[in-house]
Amino acid sequence: MPHVVFVNTGVQIVCEPLSGRVKASVGHGWQRCVVQGPDGKPKSIPYVQWQLIGEKLFFAVDTTCGDPAKGYFCSAQALADDFSLSIARLLDSKGQVLSTLPSVDIVIRPASARAGEPKAVHLVVDFGNSRTGALLIESLGERGHMPQMIPFELTNRFQLDRWDKAGRSRRQGAARWFNSRSHWCQSPYLPPPKLEKEVYTVPSAKGWLNKPKPTTQRVFVTPRLFQDLSAVRMGQEAVDITEAMRVEAEVRTGVSSPKRYLWADDAAWLGGALWYMADPTDRAQTGNYACVLQGPLFRFLAEHDPDELELPPADLDEIPEADLVREHPLHPRHAPRLMMVAALYEILCQAYAYVNSAAYRELAGEQGRAREIGSLVLTYPSGMIPQERERFQHQARKAIEIFHATLGRSQRHQVALFLRIDEASAVHLTYLWSELHALERNTPLWFSTVGKPRRAGSGQHPALEVRIGCIDMGGGTSDLMIARYTHQAGYVDILRGEMLHRDGVSLAGDQLVKRLLEKLIVPKLADNLGMSPEVVEFLFGQEVPANARYRQQRIQWMNRLLVPLAQAYLQAAVEDDTTTVISHTDPTYVSPEIVRLLQRVIDQRYGAGNINVEQDVGLTFAPAMFEPIVYEVFNELLIDFCNRLVAYDVDIVLLAGQPTKLKQIQDLVQEYLPLPASRVIPLHNHYAGNWYPYQDDEGRNPGIIVDPKSAVVVGGAIDFLLVEGALGNITFQLTGINSEDPTRGNDYYWGILTPGTSKIQNSKLLFRPPEKGQKAAPVERKEFEVVSERVMIGRRLSPHEQAEATAVWCLRVDKKGQPGPIDVKVTIERRRATKDQPETFQLVAVKGTVAGKPACAEEGPEGNVFFTWRTLTTDSFFLDTGALDNIDHSGR
């Protein structure tokens, strides 16, 4: 049976199983497709690339229509029916026939030839600081029926392990939620070859009887083939490609999550270094499987990350020479926030290829019908500031524009972008929908069971109301959202929600991982391996001149040795498993190559034979040691959140996000809330119903929420479907904070963050909410002294100075490398939110001196005081530096 792919669906991969391994000069990665023609001469097929991995033969087929003289398979005008391709007598890199390979038949089918026009698939993405997941939504054609929601699975382009030995694409549950860590990498396919083409030119002379004499010439053109230009890899592939690198010096290839660095709009984060990228097949021939940042995507991505892109027309079928030159930036110091554009582009490209694959079409039905990406729906943290949300939207829009100009240029419509619902609200919606679905959408029945009569109208009975709070703990942020819900039954069931309170702080699962490493895992390693505190600090502690040259290795030890051990420990805590030994010598947790790398550096630094890391450390889950760490990290936060939940008289509290799987966190919440256990609902192992798209891979416990983080993306999908009218005659209306009347929203305590913490002391407050009965001033100003190079300004909702605060603004003083003190006074102006304008801050005055120069806030060479938004208190996160700054040596 031939492999069937659809025309104009980008690059499609097909897999042909082999009976054994091929021993020939096949090279690494994708190869250009050259076969031996009937005349015995080599014949190139420019729109096909191939590679061998183990006992599988892969072909990447560019299905784009175009001029065959420029390398395309067929023009749109000439394609009346199936285009059949038979690939036989494939040549290896030395020009020898690979005689043991079978002949492979591929059919490129016009999209409307069998089953009509392409069908829209909508992509809902929860892009997290730690993990990312997405849903593919496809309507069944009848409104009112639950559309299909299929979890998106990220393909490992390096390993191509999605395909089994029979050549079939299989589902991979582990790829549904993938690490958000993003690394630059060479584009997935070889660039299209330059092809010689005969073109006619304007006659310059006339022939016999004054007739034009046609002239021709041969020119070289580069067709726009293989336009999946992605330069970022995520998930397991990011691990694989960085593991393949053989770079000893410090190189910057990625960030722990692009969402953490949306504020980073220049090259300052790089500290003068250049971006590098993984090159797992050594395409640049450096020999170390890494190279300076380059590639076709950088035709469109400038270093300063402008919001207006220079993109080619979708119908252009050649790549101009001027564009090819821009593929090699001279000094690649691109703004880190640009990686969000590249990461979303990677997800769009993978989703587009997947929804048009044979595997997806078989799973979703209507196998003879092509697909298009109709919408990109993004959720966002509840505490995300307006500036950050706006930048998130800008980066997503640019990713869509690049997708539309490259791989998705054959789509009839550009992908629509929606940022409509925050993450905690999405969790609310998932819970509400699961409850209503269980009662066959009988809204009055649910409200009569759960609701309370509140807010009686004039001459009316009190209306039933349900107040729901949600604590959503992710990797980077913990969010709180409280809303009250009422309903109106009728021909259209209306579920009305009013948001009463919303907040978010940058304290979540990653901080728990950090403290678990600092207080338990690293000390345990040190004790059992015989490492002194000095050795531990050199390997895993703060970066100092002595260990700066090992930064690349330290980042790898952090993310591929220590963090996997912490994750395994946390999973053991979830399962209350106190017997399983968690060891860095077990390849289930840690790659042996990472352990060997650690041993090599130790031997170089301290001499061979002094410390042997190839021994078990006997690490097991110990509740008595773990519970104090959870308490240290989350107790004050949970007391603060629970006090607010009590103040708003909530009826139900939902716990979402990975950390809430821990019984220790569930117990703290239960302890601080005057609610029965049945009203505090951890979504982990909560029954949602068989409709829930994330289910156990083996079919066990149907309807159970296995991963509480999934409630966010599912809620985002439900919100999208309700707005689109795809879930029947029911509507959901959520109003309140930052929607109809922002002036009713949160009023924060603003102040200077204590360095090294996420706290604001009351003595350092700049702006406070008005006292009860006092009218809030629309504009406030505050003058204060600055003597340091950086001052972080943050906010908290709570009046208590021990409450967690979130960084929002950064006041940076640039001494321009000159010695001398900073003696500056600045004036900050705060304008409260109105119906038409969100809350704003600006620097309105500076005076004093900076290293002997007058303080100046103006742009230009004299400027030395800057005020910008920034959500990370330090230059880099510990996952990006490989440095732990508070390792506990007290027990040694």
Automatic annotation (TrEMBL):
SUPFAM superfamilies recorded: Actin-like ATPase domain (SSF53067)
Instruction: Write down what this protein is called.
Output: Virulence factor SrfB
> Which species is the source of this protein?
Schlesneria paludicola
Which InterPro entries does the protein's record reference?
A: ATPase_NBD, Virulence_factor_SrfB
